Every structure is written in structure tokens, then in C-alpha cells.
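Researcher: We're teaching a course module on how sequence relates to structure. For the next exercise, students receive a sequence and then see the predicted structure as C-alpha cells, so they can try to spot secondary structure elements on their own. Here is the exercise chain.
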Amino acid sequence: MFTSLLVPVDGSVHALKALSIAAQLASPDATLHLLHVRELLPHLHYGSLLSLQEAIEASSPETAEAEITEILERAQAHLRERFDGRIETHGRHGDPARIIAYEAEALEVEVIVIGSRGLSDWSGMITGSVSHKVSHIATCMVISVHDDPPALAEPDESNPYQGL
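Model: And here is the predicted structure for the students to work with:
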């Protein structure tokens, strides 16, 4: 069991699953650090087409802080149902992979537990996922949490690779 874990959260179901796994991996006296890193211009990174006014509002410091607070509060509420230990929250701005790796080192955590999701958009294919980048640049252990595999309708006895 670990005593110091960092769990990056972005509001996705993948992050919630990572929180649940982190709670299982944490010792009762552990500290779980929840970190949300907000892109500086999120509408550019997520492929949203906004009007100029919407882009300005999405980039405002007030909007950014409100988003960070909301995501961290939801993550903390989810975690409180599964973990009785110490929880610390951290909100940052910038490049998620670099900030996650930096914070893990600064907080001296033993492990990063991060949700992994396949990015199917064009930028994801070119730049790679955040979890993939973190696994390459972090100086501590990284546990990438994937979705449960979809159940197959009927077993195919002729496929020796089924279930791998």
C-alpha cells in the first residue's frame, strides 16, 4: 500500500475510476493529492469552435478558477465515499502532462494513478494522450487505469486470442 499518491482529475469517468483505484491502493494513513490542471486555452485543445466572446469567457481567470474548484470538489466527494484518509487538492494552469510530473516530484509522491482514455480526435493521434506523456516523463511510478474491456456477446471458440 502507498502512503502518498497523486491522482490527476479532469471530470471524466476515467478520472473517477482512477480515484477509486487510488483509494484501494492507499494505506489508511495515506495522503491522496487530487490535481486538476486546466489548459490555458481549453477550447483550442478540445476542438471546440467558439465565438470570440465565448473564447474570451472560457479563457477568463474567473471561469478557470470556477472550473478548477468544481472539478476538484466533485472528485473529493467521490473519493470521500471510498477513502477516510487525508485528501489535499491542487489546481494548476498549463500543460497537463508537464504539470502532473512536476507536482508529483514537488509533492514527493510515491505513485501517480491516472485515468487513461484513448483519444480518437486528430490532436490526440498527433500529440499522444496525457497519461502516455506522464508515464514517460514522471520520476515516480505511474499506474494508468484503463476502462473495463467490453464484454463479448458470444464466446468465439475458434479465436485463440479472445480475451487477451
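Model: If you want an answer key for the exercise: The chain has a mean pLDDT of 82. Residues 47 and 130 are 16 Å apart (CA to CA).
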